Every structure is written in C-alpha cells, then in structure tokens.
Amino acid sequence: MALGRRQPTEQSFWVTTASLPRSPGHPFYERLNGLLSDMDFDRKVEALWAPFYAENGRDSIPPGVVYRMLFVGYFEGITSQRGIAWRCSDSLSLRAFLGLGIEGKVPDHSSLTKIRQRIPAKIDQQVFQLVLEEAAKRGLLKGKTVAVDATMLEANAAMKAIVLRETGEDWNEFLTRLYREERGDDDDDDSDPPSANELRRFDKQRGKKGKKKVSNDTWKSPSDPDSRIAKLKDGRTHLAYKAEHVVDLDTELILAARVLHATEADSATFLGSVEAAQANLEAANCDVEIREAVADKGYHKAEVLAEARAAGLRTYVPEPRVQGGKRRWAKKPPEWKDAVYANRRRVRGERSKRLQRQRSERVERSFAHTCETGGGRRAWLRGLENVDRRHLTQALARNLSLIVRHLFGVGTPRGLQGGEGLVAAGIALLLSVLAAMRRVFGEGLVAFATANEAPASGTRYHATWPTTAGGHSNMVSRACFSTGC
C-alpha cells in the first residue's frame, strides 16, 4: 500500500444536499429536546415573547433557539456568549439540538445581547417558573423545607480601573495627589511627576501604616457601577456580585436564584429570597407552602428571626457567639427574644443537625454546578439586572438537568461517559468473579449472557477462560463486547 499524501483541495461549486455531513446527534441533547417537546417549551415561550414583537416583518430568532444556546453554555461550561456562539457553530450535534441543521446559520453573540435588551427580565422569571411547573407535574417538587445560602460572583470589571466617586480620579492620580500632599508640593506643578517606582513604594508604606483601605463608599467601577468591592471565596479582593439560592432540600431543585449587591448582608436578603421562592411555587401552580428554612450562622439576626416566626416560618439558623457570652434584651421587643430562643431550641435538636448536613451538601452542589462546572463563577455581562438574568438562566438549566436525570438517569452530557465507565467497571468485576468461580468449581467453559439474548440496548457480553495443561485456568483471556451499532 502506498503512502497517502495530503493534497490541497478546492471547494466544489455545487454540493448536493445528500453529500452534506450529518450528525448522529448527541444522546443527552436528544433526550433534553424530547423533554422540551413534551412540556411544549417552544410554544409556551413564544407566547411569552409575542407581545414584544410586531405581527409583520422578518422573522426573529426563535425563542427556543435562544434558550437552547444558553443551555449549551451551562452544560458545556462555556462562560461567554461569544464562546457559546462559536461552540454551536462548530458542532454538528449542537446544530441538531438547536434545530438548525448544516445549512442553518447559528445566531451571532450580538443577537443574544440585542434580544436580552428587548425582552424584559420578568419573562426570564416566567420561563423559570415553567420549568418548576414541569418538575411539579413529575412529582419532583416538595418545597416544604428549603435551604438558603449565598456565594460571590466575580464581576466583569477590574480593580485597577476603579475611580473615586467624588472626583473621578483613578488609583494612580489619587496616589500622585497624596504623594505631593505629603511632600508639600504644588498639585498644579506637573514639571516633576513621581515615577512609577516612587508611587509603588509610597503605596506600600501606606499599607504598612494601615492607611491603604478601599471602601465602596468612596470608590466605584466606571465600567460596572453596580459591582461592589468584596472578598471572593479564594481570598482575593475583587469587584463582585452576590448570588443567593433557595433550594428544595428534598429534591435539590432551585426554587429561587437572585443576584444582589455584594455588600448586602445575608440577614438582610434572607426573607426576600424565601418570599421569592414561595412566589415561584405559586406561579408554578404548586400548592405547597414553605414551612421550614435552613441557613448558616451568617443569616442569624434577632429581628429577621422574629419576622420569620410571625410569617409562620420555622428557622434552623445556628447562633453565632456573642461577646460576653450572653445576649442583652433591654430595650428590645419581646418578640425578638422569643424568636431567638425558639430558634435556639430547634437548632440543638437532631433534626437540625440532619438538615444542616443536607444544606451544606445540596446547596453547595447547586453552586458547584451553576458557577464552577456551569461556567457562571465569572460574570461576562455588566449591570445587576444583566448578571441576575444570566444567573437565573443557569439555575433554570440546572433544574432541567435534574428533571432529565430523574427521567433517564443522566443529567449532563458528560454523565453518559461516566455511566459507560460504570458499566465497564461492573462488567470487569463480574468477569473477575466468574474467573474465581472457575478456579473453585473446576474445569470447563464459563460463559454468560443476559437471558441468552441481547439487552434492549443491543449489548451482548461473552467471555471464555481457557485452561492450561494442568487444568488450571488463566486470568480472563478474552472478552468480546458487541455494542450492537
């Protein structure tokens, strides 16, 4: 056989449709499309978008295509809209998932931005409630006991670009003014500006003296004014937002996902998030009332616990240590004291410990999926409303994955790979057990099949153990697997 060499090719002027490449489709995305078809997702979303479009004119991008592209961003872990558009253009299976085919054009990333500016935020909330309604129909929504927790999202803005709120000076201009004030120089004299090294040394000295502080009251980001200076989970100080989830502890569904200013205290947003979750349950036609809420000690505040108790909500919030070891209730309403003591009694019980373990596992898992593997830890959009809508779509995709997992046993595209690996490991274990049986029970051929027929998936397994001259068997000599493809 001669060596094949790569030759320069020329594009054909005419190409028949039958000659175009076809994708067999991705099994996970085919099942996800089946779920969306069963719940009539496209027709319902089109009805929500219809009031914001004219009756005549060129057809817009279908709403189902837009949401499917955002779902691809979650399932493939793609953070930016540019990356989502490129990935959908590059993959034949994703084109099939979008319903475009080889001849269709994938929407540009700028189209996603234009559509987000046209459609109000309340529509995304209604789409989120559609998925919750589908979960309730399939018995996946309990909603009686919820857990609340928050994490930080990195904003699409740099600390180096922050400016003073009053004067608009950036960091270097601010340091230069302080440097000249300390030396007694004239601020208007630009003949001898300080060098970059001098400014760095001066800034370092200010840090040693405890004067190097950056406050949200005096500094802001000119590119993203809604972002706030905060400390991220990895310890870095960065401009950020706060994402808060309310999760059903029984089913792990996200009942509410809100993005707030990073400086808002957990205790200040606790009841608002629970109320948002209850509103979503009611909009999803789920006749369930939230009765219990579990949170960490950052959410503990006497006034908030009293308001929750007045609303009929049982709280399980650990109490932080107080200086002096004892709380003082002078000049405070008696309702605050009663709510704190009732919460303290519940926290000391075994049920509270079990709920706290579930909270630390399941709420953190929702953040891991939406922020880490889902690519939502860093926001590529700017503005509180835009970041909130993007994160809500991540939570929507997370809930869809839980429904798909309930129906088919796999909740992500990569989960199929893990399932195949698990099946292969089980087959290898079964072969080793049969080899041990062969050594124990004597000579002969050990073969197995599933009811002497191929399984529903078309898979057949067969193994043989040859014997040596002494009658002893070797390890597994041959394993033949037929996938049925």
Summary keywords:
4 domains; two-stranded antiparallel ribbon; disordered C terminus; 6-stranded mixed sheet; 15 helices; 485 residues; 46% helix; globular; alpha+beta
Overall geometry comes to globular
- Total strands: the figure is 10
Radius of gyration equals: 30 Å
Outline the low-pLDDT stretches.
Answer: 443-485
End-to-end distance, in Å? 29 Å
Major β-sheet, in short? Answer: 6 strands, mixed
Number of helices: 15
Write the H/E string, N to C: HHHHHHHEEHHEEEEHEHEHHHHEE
* DSSP strand content: 5-15%
Helix content: 40-55%
What is the SS-derived class?
A: alpha+beta
What's the domain count?
A: 4
Task: Describe, in plain words, how this protein is organized in 3D.
With 485 residues, the protein is an alpha+beta fold. It contains 15 helices and 10 strands. It has 4 domains: 99 residues, no CATH class; 212 residues, no CATH class; 51 residues, no CATH class; 68 residues, no CATH class. Strands 1, 4, 5, 6, 7 and 8 form a 6-stranded mixed beta sheet that branches. A two-stranded antiparallel ribbon has the order 2-3. It has a two-stranded antiparallel sheet with strand order 9-10. A hairpin with a 5-residue loop joins strand 5 and strand 6. The longest helix has 27 residues. It is globular, with a radius of gyration of 30 Å.
